[in-house]
Amino acid sequence: MQFVKIYQLKNDGHQEVIATCKLEGSIVICKGDEVLAANLERDGITDYEYPDKTLFFKDGLKFLEQLKYNFKSGYLNASDIIEE
Amino acid sequence: MENFGEKNKLTQEQIKEQTEKILETGEIIYKEPIYIGLTANDTFYVKFNEGKAGLFKPKSGESERLCRDCKIEEGSLYKRERAAYLVDKALNFNLVPPTVIREIDGEGIGSIQEFISNPKMYWDLNQDKQDKVLSASWDRLINLWIFDYIIFSADRKKNLLTQNTTVHAIDNGLAFSGHTFAPFRHFFNQEVPQNTVNRLKIFFSSIDKQTILRDLLSELLPADEIDACLARIRFVNNLLDSHQMIPENTHLKFYPSEI
Questions:
Q1: Beta-bridge partners for A30
Q2: B258 vs B26: CA distance, rounded Å
Q3: Nearest CB to A35 within list B118, B125, B154
Q4: What contacts B249, CB < 8 A, 6 or more positions away?
Q5: A77/B123 Cβ within 8 A
Q6: CB–CB of A18/A10 below 8 Å?
Q7: Spatial distance between the Cα atoms of B166 and A52, rounded to a whole number of angstroms
Q8: How far apart are CA B169 and CA B11, in angstroms?
Q9: Which residue of B has its CA nearest to A15?
Q10: Shortest CB distance from A46 goes to which of B32, B41, B157?
Q11: Given CB atoms, is B45 within the 8 Å cutoff of chain A?
């Protein structure tokens, strides 16, 4: 199973996993923070290799790969793809 | 009776200077990595004895692939974070939290930016709250659009930090190169706040301010990127001087031609 965790930084410096995006078949499903998951599903994320392109859940593995580039501010961070 | 409150009230400029000093030289009493090696840009949360907190992004933790994909010199993101802050400071837009360069024992050199408390990324706001931010921060978002063009941010889009309804321009490492301009949204034909027009005019009319900025940026960016940045400031200033808005048909180029 391949998945990415999205962490939120709190005021005291500790982090919380607020969402997990998993590859199920060829598409991605994001669970956890409903607002974040809904925004990801609706708006997609940037493909940093082709910045005019937007990736959506249907783009599967590519979407998962690019999550960490879209979430790198420190306030919301996405992990690399984790394989279990 | 003397009003000690007024006398001791610091200006915004003085507060920034104080914060910069703490970030640069303050005693770090706590340091926590944010999942090193598993994210695109290693980051540490740091706390200072003086009561401030910051986010440290070391040069050693910058993603080579991200730099390659964005056609940015590897190992330069931390410098670009600082450069963005210097441009923001020079233009008096007050969008970027204070950001300095510092070497931390064991982690090497990198950028430290003041941590904004009670933060909410735009990504994590529902539609209603996003609309509230848009409405409450309209002028500030127009300033952000102009600022992002000036620094040629390849990375804004929804990468917006909010504190209540105030927006802050964080995560400016992917800026100044010509890769792409990716703003939060465009504001063509929208009236630009008069104080923004004035700020640009003040900067543009002062050779001293431009020289100081150029000198500061020369320690951080290649000469051609600095030239392009200053050309964009000139371009925007000239446009706003004539129109007080940026017209729909304006091509926001990396190196704009004179108008």
A1: A21
A2: 44
A3: B125
A4: none
A5: no
A6: no
A7: 28
A8: 21
A9: B34
A10: B157
A11: yes
The length of chain A in residues reads: 84
Tokens for B136?
């409450």
Whether the CB-CB separation of B258 and B232 falls below 8 Å is answered with: no
Nearest CA-CA partner of B35 in A49, A47, A18, A8: A8
Cα B56 to Cα B35: distance, rounded to the nearest angstrom? 13
Span B162-221, pLDDT tens digits: 998 899 999 999 999 988 999 999 999 999 999 999 999 999 999 999 999 999 999 999
Judging contacts by C-beta atoms under 8 Å, the chain A residues touching residue B123 are 36, 39-40, 71, 76
Which of B45, B154, B171 lies at the smallest CB-CB distance from A51? B154
pLDDT in tens, B63-114: 888 888 888 898 999 999 999 999 999 999 999 999 999 999 999 999 999 9
Cβ-based burial of B132 (10 A; exposed 0-12, middle 13-18, buried ≥19): middle
Q: Where are the alpha helices (DSSP H) in chain A?
A: 34-43, 61-70
**Alpha-carbon span A60 to A27, nearest angstrom:** 4
Give me the half-sphere count of Cα atoms (radius 13 Å) on the Cβ side of residue A44.
16
Chain B residue closest in CA terms to A32: B124
ipTM (interface predicted TM)? 0.91
* Amino acid letter, B41: N
Helices marked H in chain B: 4-8, 12-25, 64-69, 77-91, 127-136, 138-151, 194-204, 207-217, 223-243
pTM value?
0.94
Token pair for residue A74?
């420190």
Q: Which of B189, B188, B223 is nearest to B73 (CA)?
A: B223
Interface of A with B (CB under 8 A): 7-9, 11, 13-15, 18, 33, 35-36, 38-40, 43, 46, 48-49, 51-52, 68-80
